[in-house]
Amino acid sequence: MSLKYGLLGLLAEEPLHGYEVKNRFEAMLGGTWEVNIGQVYTTLQRLERDGLVRPAGERGDRGKLLYELSDAGRKALDEWLAQPESGPQELREDIYVKLLLAARLANGNLGPLLSRQKRAYLQRLRDLNQLEGRARKDGRIDLARLVRGALLHTEADIKWIDELSEMGISGESE
Amino acid sequence: MSELVQLSDITKVYQGGVTGALNGVSLTVEEGEFTAVMGPSGSGKSTLLNLIAGLDRPTSGSVAVAGADLGRMGEAALARFRRDHIGFVFQFFHLLPNLTALENVLIPAQLKSTTSAEARGHELLEQLGIGEVADRYPARLSGGQQQRVAIARALINQPTLLLADEPTGALDTRSGDQVMELLMEVHRRGQTILLVTHDAKLATRYAARVISVLDGKIVDDARLETTERAATDVIRVRGEESRR
Question: By three-state DSSP, how is residue A76 classified?
Answer without folding.
Answer: helix
